[in-house]
UniProtKB/TrEMBL annotation:
Belongs to the BTG family. One of its GO terms (cellular component) is cytoplasm. Gene3D superfamilies: Anti-proliferative protein, N-terminal domain. InterPro entries: Anti_prolifrtn, BTG, BTG-like_sf. The lineage of its organism: Eukaryota, Amoebozoa, Discosea, Flabellinia, Vannellidae. Coiled coil: none annotated. Residues 8-117 form the Anti-proliferative protein domain. It comes from Vannella robusta. This is Anti-proliferative protein domain-containing protein. SMART domains: btg1.
């Protein structure tokens, strides 16, 4: 197994966590965790020669991960990680929409393959953040300079934000005075609100 370099560890963990959370709710936790670890290793092997921190956009198309339900295309990295874990990815995938993901140094973004092509950042290194951290209902881990975002169990809109749903979380946001209030025990790196108009 490959040892992740510090420059790609958070990105790959965030990407793998996102895909594991999209698996059906009846998939056991241990299976999801094994899939996540296998996907991290598969991505690390694939990206090892295509990860340039100084030029994050270089190799972006190569690092893209896609599951397109309409065409039936499943990215080989997802198939390989699922096979290593011992299940069929297509049968285990939960959502009824496909996902396109870009894994770049310092940032991981997703969007649905159908509908408006609106991208959502699920991980962003703090130094790359375009907006103040406090605007995003985050929990920070200062030791790695990363910003993690809270999951949502349903699509919630307010005038400034749009959230990607985490369909299998049992956590419900508490809205007070149009502000999102969270219990920090349920935080992990998935959702980032995107400002309206971006």
């Amino acid at each position: 197994s490959l040892v992740l370099t510090p420059t790609m560890k958070q990105e790959l963990e965030s990407a793998a966590n996102y895909w594991s959370e999209l698996l059906n709710y009846n998939i056991p936790y241990n299976t999801k965790h094994s899939f996540q670890q296998n996907l991290i290793q598969v991505l690390a092997q694939k990206y090892s020669a295509h990860w340039i921190v100084e030029s994050p956009e270089c190799g972006q198309a190569f690092r893209e991960i896609v599951y397109d339900l309409e065409s039936g295309y499943i990215d080989p990295v997802l198939l390989q990680a699922a096979e290593l874990t011992g299940f069929n990815f297509q049968e285990a995938y939960g959502p009824n929409r496909g996902i396109r993901m870009w894994v770049d140094p310092g940032e991981v973004e997703v969007c649905y393959t159908e509908g408006p092509p609106r991208q959502h950042v699920i991980y962003q290194q703090q130094s790359r953040s375009r907006s103040p951290v406090q605007d995003y209902s985050t929990v920070m881990y200062p030791q790695d300079g990363a910003v993690y975002y809270y999951p949502e169990n349903e699509m919630y809109y307010n005038p400034q934000c749009e959230y990607v749903p985490n369909m299998y979380s049992n956590y419900t946001p508490n809205v007070q005075n149009n502000q999102m209030m969270y219990d920090t025990t349920n935080a992990y790196p998935v959702q980032l609100p995107i400002e309206a108009g971006i």
